[in-house]
Amino acid sequence: MELKKLILTACCFCFFGFSVLAQAVKKVPALNEKLFIELSAKDSLLFDIAFKSCDLKQLESIFAPGFVFYHDRGYSVATSPQSLDDFKKNIKRSCENKSRERASMRREIVKGSLQVFEQGETRAIQTGVQRFYRTENGKAEKIVEESKFSRTWNKIKGNWLMVSELDYMVNTHPVSLLGELRYEPKPYAPESVELYQKIVSLDSAFFGAYNNCELDKMAAMMSDELEFYHDRGGLSTSKKQVLESIQKNICGKVTRILAKGSIEVYPIKDFGVVQIGYHSFRNIAEPGESEPSKFITLWRLKDGNWQATRIVSLH
């Protein structure tokens, strides 16, 4: 805030003169330091309760009865709301798991990111950037999330209580977790629009059959030499077993959802193409859908017929 005032002062003096400067300075709203300190203290108390004391009774001095927490995890996943009761249950569950799993969490606010905006005498907005760290089984601490939060506070019977919070994921791959900056490629552009559209059409047909349990149609689009790599299930080289597994575990239970705009297609000379994309899954036994995950499919063109020869499914 002081730096911003200094810059404003210098600019006004250089270009408009002292009299205009005086008017400009008068228009800058003064920071309510008392409110800033009070809401900062409640922020610290919240995470002391969540990660250390586990004294849920103290939450009554922080949250309004109708508090709602909104978690926004980016473009491809719907924002999920959470009531105060559910929020408390999650803190309680975390406290119970902490000792059992020999794990601990720590949260810090990025220095200088905390802000408070007054909206009249009984309402305020508090924003900041936060980082969460996890230590497990005595191993080195790792950062697991970086997010920006925005909270609404209301003054109720003389006490500032939080009525809502929105957390938006800033970085799902924090620098300190990888040890280096994550590489960001240039925007994808297909080498051949016609080929790209063909593979998108194949993907739609293949997973349309997957979603509707049309196993004969899937079988026709899979090579007899199929290799299916699953990061959790391992390697399967039996087309018959893959189809049987889909019939047993997927049919009528799971729906695949393609992440729009995620498909990339790269031609492979004298073979076909490699397709890369992201998709999520909705299980009828569970609410919502899974986080988008990467898949890779090698399509071979032989005698005018496209078939999937290699499928890699990652989570």
Short précis:
It holds the Pfam family DUF4440. The chain has helices at 2-16, 18-27, 33-53, 84-101, 175-178, 193-211, 215-220, 239-249; strands at residues 63-72, 80-83, 103-109, 115-118, 123-136, 142-156, 159-171, 222-230, 234-236, 254-258, 264-268, 272-283, 293-302, 305-313.
Given helix and strand content, the structural type is alpha+beta
In the CATH hierarchy, what is the architecture of the largest domain at level 2?
A: Roll
**Main beta sheet: strand number and arrangement?**
7 strands, mixed
The overall number of domains is: 2
* CATH topology label of the largest domain: Nuclear Transport Factor 2, Chain: A
Q: Radius of gyration from the CA trace?
A: 27 Å
Provide a count of the helices.
8
Number of strands: 14
| Low-pLDDT segments | 1-30
Domain DUF4440: 49-162, 199-307
Keywords: Signal
Pfam families: DUF4440
Signal peptide: 1-24
Description:
- Residues 49-162, 199-307 form the DUF4440 domain.
- This protein has two domains: 30-178, Nuclear Transport Factor 2, Chain: A (Roll), CATH 3.10.450; 193-313, Nuclear Transport Factor 2, Chain: A (Roll).
- It is elongated and about 80 Å long.
- The protein is built from eight helices and 14 strands.
- The longest helix has 21 residues, at 33-53.
- With 315 residues, it is of the alpha+beta class.
Keywords:
single chain; 315 residues; alpha+beta; Nuclear Transport Factor 2, Chain: A; 2 domains; 7-stranded mixed β-sheet; 8 helices; 14 strands; 33% helix; 38% strand
